[in-house]
Amino acid sequence: MQQYLIFTFIALFAFGIQTFLYKVSAARKCNTAKTTLSFMMTVSILGLIFWVYTKQPIGNIKFLILFAVINAITFLATTTTRINALKYIPTSISYPIIRVSTIFVVAFSLFYFKDSLSYYQFVGIILAVAVVFILYKNDKQDKIKNFKVGITLALIAMITSALTTTAQKFAALYVNKLSYITLAYFINIFLVLILSKQIAGENNKKKSNVDARIIGLFIGIFNFIGFFFVLQAYAIGPLSIVAPLHDLNFVIAIILATLIYKEKLTTKRILGIVLSVVSVILLSIA
């Protein structure tokens, strides 16, 4: 197996656990700002420790700042909208929609990096689009309150996720990875502190705040592992293959949410999940 695929699969499992922990945060009605702040602080501290320990050079400072700022803004938007979407709709609806971001990433890779589009990838794009239409309409038997709000947040997360992935590809090619992780998350901390009231959510109970910090700590640990290895994969592997495979992490989150939180899986949702998995696999075939 090629090295970039090994890195991708390590990132896939780490991000899968992280993605499930978003659901845990939402289920416990945690303060989104405190969860996010704990998460960002954990990653930035780990990044700084490993960066200092390995004594790696900063590299191109201008590129480092540029990509770190872009990543900080888009990733914070993705994280907060994703967590808040899960407060309104199940993971089996939210995550397949968010993962349609793969289409935009593959399209950019084809245009900018001149990757060729195979027949399989073309079919994968069609299936990914179909997922949004399948899951968008609320089933009558579901009766999900604020369904449209959840869908809107998931769609926003889909767009910002694509922007984040693209920025990470460029960062992996042109800047030091550990310094990039450290700076991007320090900027995130600054943004969360400024926007804490806007992204906090409704729950401000003491127990909820403690849960938010603990969950954020574990999200940060798994994010750091996944982020580091996906950057390694982006540095040596094609974006059009690494991104779709990495995006399969949502399947892990859905399986865990179904087992632990007993989320209802209707026929439509199962179809959406299956089509999402098939589309991502097809998109990864060069």
Attribute tags:
286 residues
Low-confidence stretches: none
Mean pLDDT: 86
Distance between the termini: 16 Å
What count of domains describes the coordinates?
Answer: 1
Tally of extended strands? 0
Order of helices and strands: HHHHHHHHHHHH
| Structural class category | mainly alpha
Taken from the alpha-carbon principal axes, the silhouette is: globular
Rg estimate, integer Å: 18 Å
- Binned, the helix content reads over 70%
Number of helices: 12
Oligomer: single chain
β-strand amount: under 5%
Summarize the entry for a quick read.
By secondary structure, the chain is mainly α. The chain has helices at residues 3-27, 32-54, 61-85, 91-98, 101-112, 119-136, 147-174, 177-199, 206-236, 239-246, 249-261, 267-283.
Q: Topology, please?
A:
Blueprint: H1 3-27, H2 32-54, H3 61-85, H4 91-98, H5 101-112, H6 119-136, H7 147-174, H8 177-199, H9 206-236, H10 239-246, H11 249-261, H12 267-283
Helix pairs in contact: 1-3, 1-9, 1-11, 2-8, 2-9, 3-7, 3-8, 4-7, 4-11, 4-12, 5-7, 5-10, 6-12, 7-9
